[in-house]
Amino acid sequence: MRLKNQRGFTLMELMVVIVIVAILAAVAVPLYINYVRDAQRTEARGAIGAVITAEQTQFQRTGAYSADVFVRNPTPATQALNCDLTEALQNWDISVTAATPTDGFRVVATGVVGRPTAGLTVTYTYSRATPLPDPWEGT
Prior knowledge:
The protein is of the alpha+beta class. The chain is built from 2 helices and 4 strands; from the N terminus they run H-H-E-E-E-E. The relative contact order is 0.13.
């Protein structure tokens, strides 16, 4: 009795390939998600950096920080600070608070609902009186 020349893979070979692909997916997917989140946080930090620069410029001009450095509908006063966050506003809501105008300010970028950044928050706190070791916070 002669066996025909067989083609294809055995069930065992297919199972080994499936297990290897599953292990790779289990490792790669969480890493990819973390890379995406880090990129989103970096976008927020870039936008916050523009606000920080505008705040420092405002302080040099007037001697006080302002919560009006950036608003969604800019006025001539806020446009004069050259703080254009048009691109960042697609994914982030950015708010600035200056509790004490001469002491410091806080910038919060919150992910926009319905966008990939939803649920993320990045915060920068600046204080002239007490410099913080790491002014960045985020989730």
